[in-house]
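Researcher: Quick test of sequence recovery. Tokens follow.
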């Protein structure tokens, strides 16, 4: 049985995409977790984003940037859409959405464990109260550890805009954590 050129190209595309998924799946789930604040939702949303990326893979141009930068935009949009739908449903239902805990590794001192876990919970609670655009830029810089230029590429905005958005997001996060605005 002879494989056609089209089938061969399809297999090459699948293998190339599979390599990207393997390289970035953990990072994608972590990024989604930081955006939506729920591990199960993050797993589902990252899978959904990879599916969307697969069908759009022909439009990915490696000369214009790294795969993850291109993929992150798809992931962020998927998460943002999910959060909007969830907010609308919450508004209709008038219900409170619980904040899921964050998995941690354990130091040996129980008091350190309790203090660290409380700090993480407070930080995550504050981050989830931020507007999605502030949550996103905090996540890109401080959790994904992207440079300002990489963030500008991901968000498709000028470097100065990244800097001002990050400044504002940090200010709002400090406020959420109980600090003063002028710190």
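Model:
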């Amino acid at each position: 049985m002879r494989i056609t050129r089209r089938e061969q190209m399809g297999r090459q595309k699948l293998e190339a995409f599979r390599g990207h998924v393997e390289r970035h799946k953990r990072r994608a789930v972590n990024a989604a977790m930081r955006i939506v604040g729920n591990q199960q939702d993050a797993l589902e949303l990252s899978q959904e984003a990879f599916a969307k990326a697969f069908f759009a893979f022909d439009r990915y141009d490696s000369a214009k940037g790294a795969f993850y930068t291109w993929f992150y935009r798809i992931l962020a949009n998927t998460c943002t859409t999910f959060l909007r739908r969830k907010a609308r449903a919450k508004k209709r239902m008038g219900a409170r959405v619980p904040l899921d805990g964050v998995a941690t590794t354990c130091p040996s001192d129980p008091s350190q464990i309790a203090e660290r876990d409380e700090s993480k919970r407070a930080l995550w609670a504050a981050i989830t109260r931020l507007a999605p655009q502030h949550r996103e830029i905090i996540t890109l810089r401080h959790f994904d550890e992207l440079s300002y230029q990489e963030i500008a590429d991901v968000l498709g905005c000028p470097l100065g805009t990244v800097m001002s958005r990050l400044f504002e997001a940090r200010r709002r996060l400090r406020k959420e954590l109980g600090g003063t605005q002028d710190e």
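Residues 1-97 form a domain with the Rna Polymerase Sigma Factor; Chain: A fold (CATH 1.10.1740.10).
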